Amino acid sequence: MILVIGANGMLGRDLMTLLGDRGLGVDIAEIDITSPESVLRVVGEIKPEVVINCAAYTDVDGCESNTESAMSVNGEGVAYLAMACRDNGALLVQISTDYVFDGGKGTPYVEDDAPCPLSVYGESKQAGEMNAAFSPEHLIVRTQWLYGLHGKNFVETMLRFGAEKDELTVVDDQVGSPTWTVDLSRAIIALIDAGCRGTYHAVNSEFCSWNTFAKAIFEEAGLNVSVKPMTTVELNRPAKRPLYSTLACDKLNADTGFKPQHWRDALREYLKLRV
Ligand SMILES: NC(=O)c1ccc[n+]([C@@H]2O[C@H](COP(=O)([O-])OP(=O)(O)OC[C@H]3O[C@@H](n4cnc5c(N)ncnc54)[C@H](OP(=O)(O)O)[C@@H]3O)[C@@H](O)[C@H]2O)c1
Q: What whole-number distance in Å separates Cα of residue 44 and Cα of residue 42?
């Protein structure tokens, strides 16, 4: 049995669909990962072979003013899960992020590159990565720029704006790989089924800026919206973001044979599903 925590979230919902009968989902109503008692009770009762932790405090800007909550959910919560996995002989799969990197490397990050987060969210997710190691059997899957049918995301925001406006300004100096939660779920399942352990990167292939991604969304959706460039400095968000934090997925490909599709093909497939 594979226990998915955060099963009502954007990634959790797609993972549950793909896992089918292999998956059992719980969310905040059944388990609070910040409570060691709650974690021990649920993991101890279900005794899963694998725990996939999709639960997180994902409001990147909100983390800057809620450091305690961010560290509690994204850091300490993972420690409790890891200890429960250790005690029950389960594999812990922890989902992490490109925001553990500062984006200054200039080429795609590989799994062994040293984290250097710029934000509270990134620091809390790095703490989660370290705490996952309390479970001798652990797998850390770093990803980025997620969108899916079941959560707030950039694609849905652009489509909403695009229905109301004919011109938008979108940052063009942050580069990454837009990643569909269905393709990430496929990668996670491939890693589990191949018996992988340690750290892996999993994103859709190739990369672009948010600005290019926005243009692609409007083109694929048949919306006539002009997308102007702006800089990250001009946008002035509370949390600092890495400028170039693309993640190399060669290790995923070599160890599982799975290669996520090009981000634009994934976007096309996603847009077909939502109509
Ligand atoms: N979204 C992205 O672009 C992105 C990029 C890179 C990595 N990631 C990582 O990918 C994973 C999945 O992200 P997502 O976008 O699918 O997240 P999401 O939609 O925000 O889902 C997270 C789920 O966890 C639940 N949760 C929050 N606190 C909890 C707690 N203390 N105990 C149990 N459940 C709790 C949330 O419930 P409530 O909604 O009720 O709070 C929600 O159902 C996270 O680890 C995230 O850090 C995301």
A: 5
